[in-house]
Amino acid sequence: MTVSASGRVGLWLVGARGSVATTAVCGLAALRAGLAPATGCVTERLPGAVLPAWDDIVVGGHDLVTTSYEKRAEHLSRAGVIPHHLLAPVVPALRAADAEVRDGYHPTTHRGPQALAVRRLAADLETFRFKHELERVVVVNVASTEPPVPHVPAFESWSALSAALDDPALSVLPPSSVAACAALTAGCSYVDFTPSTGVAIPALDELARHNGVPYAGRDGKTGETLLRTALAPMFTDRALRVLSWSGTNLLGGGDGATLADPASAASKLRSKSDGLATLLGGPVSAPLHIDNVPDLGEQKIAWDHVTFEGFLGARMSLQFTWTGLDSALAAPLVLDLTRLLAAAHASGISGVVPELGFFFKDPLGSEEHRFDHQSATLTAWAQTLGGAR
Fold this sequence. Notes:
Pfam families: Inos-1-P_synth, NAD_binding_5
CATH class of the largest domain: Alpha Beta
InterPro entries: Myo-inos-1-P_Synthase, Myo-inos-1-P_Synthase_GAPDH, NAD(P)-bd_dom_sf
Mean pLDDT: 91
Protein name: Inositol-3-phosphate synthase
Domain Myo-inositol-1-phosphate synthase GAPDH-like: 223-327
Helix content: 40-55%
Structural class: alpha/beta
Distance between the termini: 19 Å
Number of domains: 2
Family: Belongs to the myo-inositol 1-phosphate synthase family.
CATH architecture of the largest domain: 3-Layer(aba) Sandwich
CATH superfamily of the largest domain: NAD(P)-binding Rossmann-like Domain
Number of strands: 13
């Protein structure tokens, strides 16, 4: 990796006071101060990429929650995510980030057409960029997963969507897409780190290209799916037939509470199962359960059972268990994506960036799910950053 010596970059977090965002802010402060190694940061291993330095990243965000970063960080420390010895040194950075958090959008409290919400959120981004003299801003959605929204119209064109947003009788976009629309309107690149609808609307792709900004997504790949994308190709490459791939996810914290709602869990389950079918070359019996276990706190446990068939029909199985702290796995990827999208924007790239599929369960712009292929693609692409193409 080559560090760029010019240009300050904004990291704007949607869901700014959640666990992933707080861990990212704490981690960024620790990296700047040299208090922790960049373990888990993929950008540290990319040769030749010209990326923003840690010191060049300024944090702000939108949220409806009022809990301070300091309080959230204390909770994460008790849960084993943030080492206790780092809490005091990162307090100034947490307070600085807190001062840059603005009220987010929620449909039940908003009055008027959604275009007003888009303009308000976009104005927050523009003010943030001007205040801190930023070259560019990357907006990363790490808010709670939304339920699937089947009634969202396709909106093939930005003109059609823009007209609908101006109609006070309509509420056509879910909150994640309002945030994405605001980011693109303000000329900011955008990352969907959740499986919510977000930027995955054709009209928003048109808007991104028109405004010359890149975007990537969706649904950060941090645990069970990460293992699946590494292991599933083994079976297909070895000509072994997978008969079933069952999974159970146990989690607590905010994610557990959110995904206890079947409607919210549906988005997560869909992104997990679609990727597995692609990896195995077709549909496979793959029952998957997500259960809320409050006492697990920030911990996430995944147990998978795979049955497969070998030569002469011999039946065999594989079982594995993954136990992780999801915020600690996700936060460095948020920082990686900020650096990469900022560099892509500086290089003149606009629209979806399929090369960043490495980071996601449901990669936008790509059907590739094999982890080794995604890694090779990312590495080769990162070497092109630093000059217009």
